[in-house]
Amino acid sequence: MKNKHILYIVCALMIAMTACKKDSFLNRAPLSDISPETFFTNEVDLQLYCNQYYKNLPVQNFLHADDNSDDKANQTINPLLAGTYTIPNAADTNDLPGTGAFSAGATTINGTGTNWNFTMIRACNFFLANYSKAAVSDSIKNIYVGETLFFRANEFWKKVKAFGDVPYINVYITDTSKTYLYAPRTPHQQVMDSVLQDLNFAIAHIPVKPLLAQTGRITKYAALALKARVCLWEGTYRKYFSGAGDPTPYLQGAVDAAEQIMGSGAFYIYKTGNPQSDYYNLFIQEDLTGNSEAILPMSYLPSILMNDIDRQLGQNGDGYSKDFVRSFLCTDGKPTYHNSLYQGDDTPDDEAKNRDPRYAQQIATRGFDLLNGDTIVLPRIGTTNTSTGYQCIKGRSSSLAAWGAGQSAYDFFIFRYAETLLIEAEAKAEQGQCTQTVLDNTINLLRDRVGMPHMIIASLEKDPNSDFPDVPVLIDEIRRERRVELGAEGFRFDDLHRWHAGPVINNPETILGMKLTPALRAQYPADQADQIASIVVDANDYIRVYPNFTTRTWDDKMYLYPVPTGEITLNPNLTQNPGL
């Protein structure tokens, strides 16, 4: 089964490279050698054309994911959050800084990397203008229309997250389409209403299992997972941004989509009865196609299609922030604040004691096998392993074979069932509908995997150290659970955005690392003395990742990226985002 998936992906990448090429404004390049009169004749043609979309699947591979948030403090400072980002001139710049974009067959992490490029949307519109010529039934045509609308919806949603209002183009533009080429920016609400309409069509027409015996194609459940993700984002955005519109249809849309997936009986939380390792092992599997948690995986196969992520995760100068690490509960299910189980943070061993087992399954602690028997004794600070001392190990194996350049065949999630459960819990809570039964069917299933106590509504107490002091304790704790469960998967900045919570970035602990006391420094061997001595700490001995920055200063203009100046020059009907 996996062979078919891999061959399909290879085919998709080949088609993608030949289907179109980039040009200037709104990327109006002709779609190469495809002739509508002769190409769109049968189902195979429809499928081959749609293959090119798959390079844009929102793959979650952890590399630099969440570096643009309060969860990480990479050695390379994020320019947007540091206030040093400059407005680009051209649309075809690299993916936005700090979004975790990684090219492996042109995929992007979690769909967060984007720019003003409309090539993908134009390719979708070309298909919609020509597919009807195929001599197949409407039901077959609608499957590929559904795939097309799935990808178009995801592209427009990415652009709305990045830029806010964007031109909504839903027709194939020709050289004479001046009305569309010089269109103004369409209001955010209007674009997202069209996105939801596209997703609903996709869900109605894409089958539960792909036709033509191909695994790896979009399924109804993948479309539902995207709808749940999109609707939660838009629903909470509308709730927390004044004047953004009615959140109810989107929050309910998130619930409806999540519950269809949950009610299918097709997906379960992966666990083998080993709470100290199941979460970690979930992300280092060579075949996710049969994994109960994989709504849609990205598959790799040795010698056919491999990636370099395992190696890069071990040498990319990344690190979780002190703020992220503090968010892990103790093993009694309560925060560290005034908790006798919390042993403090004077040493890495103390800090890791009595914590949610996901702590040691995301952060390299003593005894972790970094590579083929090279175990962690002390945090690898002062190296490219980690910037903060809290080394990220999610998706990072000790396999020497996977460490080889471009030799990893570990699969990645595109849509993971755990996220669906978190969406259900949050969307219900935001509507005042989250009961203990909802928690038992969602968050408590995630806690069962790692042996953590259940979240009990009646027992919740507000954490005085909460990043969100103004929200109800139930919503606050659901947000914490989401942060911990989805750590390093690329969701965090989008979450802060939709919650209107950018000022969280101002917390100094978002750019601090572990506590490096003189006593701990003395434990490092003599041959590392100079390396350790060069590490800068603050007055409380916490590592200062950026010596020139003691804190970051949030500005609301940071919620959106600037429209490239060259695009505004070409289209005077475009306007720049506020504050830029």
Core attributes:
580 residues, mainly alpha, Serine Threonine Protein Phosphatase 5, Tetratricopeptide repeat, two-stranded parallel sheet, two-stranded antiparallel ribbon, 23 helices, 8 strands, globular, disordered N terminus
Task: Please characterize this protein's 3D structure.
The protein has 580 residues and is mainly alpha-helical. It has a domain at 2-303 and 563-570: Serine Threonine Protein Phosphatase 5, Tetratricopeptide repeat, CATH 1.25.40. The chain contains 23 helices and eight strands. It has helices at residues 2-19, 36-39, 43-51, 79-82, 119-130, 138-163, 178-181, 188-205, 220-240, 248-263, 278-282, 309-313, 322-326, 348-352, 400-403, 417-430, 436-440, 443-450, 473-485, 492-498, 518-521, 529-533, 565-570; strands at 58-59, 108-109, 294-298, 369-371, 374-375, 412-416, 512-515, 542-544. The strands form four sheets. A two-stranded parallel sheet has the order 1-2. β4 (369-371) and β5 form a beta hairpin. α5 packs antiparallel against α6 (138-163), α9 (220-240) runs antiparallel to α10 (248-263) and α16 (417-430) runs antiparallel to α19. It is globular, with a radius of gyration of 24 Å. It starts with a helix and ends in a 10-residue tail after the last helix. The model is unreliable at 1-25, 27-31 and 93-113 (pLDDT under 50).
